[in-house]
TrEMBL record:
Family: Belongs to the YciI family.
Pfam families linked: YCII
Organism for this UniProt entry: Paractinoplanes tereljensis
Protein name: YCII-related domain-containing protein
Organism classification: Bacteria, Bacillati, Actinomycetota, Actinomycetes, Micromonosporales
Domain YCII-related: 1-90
InterPro entries named among the record's database cross-references: Dimeric_a/b-barrel, YCII
């Protein structure tokens, strides 16, 4: 089962200890074959909307930037519970904030 874990931005700047802990976590998950992809997301982006035949493209940043994802990890595990456990471990490393987990279909 594949899951997309997304991290919302925080006001806290990461320090060297956090970078080291995250690097070790990423290395562990990669070696185990669990981590398929990971990365940070540039704030802003592009919003695309459609109504009938009309497609509107709006460049960010957007007022709701605090609600947007700041980073992601695509993982492959045996169950939803395993995905939640990995997200718990991630949250313990990065501290206060919010993450979402969604199963990927297809």
């Amino acid at each position: 089962m594949r899951f997309l874990m997304m991290q919302k931005p925080t006001d806290t700047a990461p320090d060297q200890k956090l970078f080291a802990e995250m690097a070790a976590f990423v290395e562990e998950l990669t070696a185990a074959g669990v981590l398929l992809a990971t990365g940070g997301l540039e704030p802003g982006g592009v919003l695309m909307s459609s109504l009938g035949d009309e497609i509107t493209v709006t460049d960010g940043p957007f007022a709701e930037a605090k609600e947007a994802a700041a980073g992601f990890a695509l993982i492959e595990v045996g169950s939803r519970e395993e995905a939640i456990e990995l997200a718990r471990r991630f949250r313990k490393i990065v501290g206060d904030g919010e993450s979402t987990i969604q199963q990927v279909f297809g």
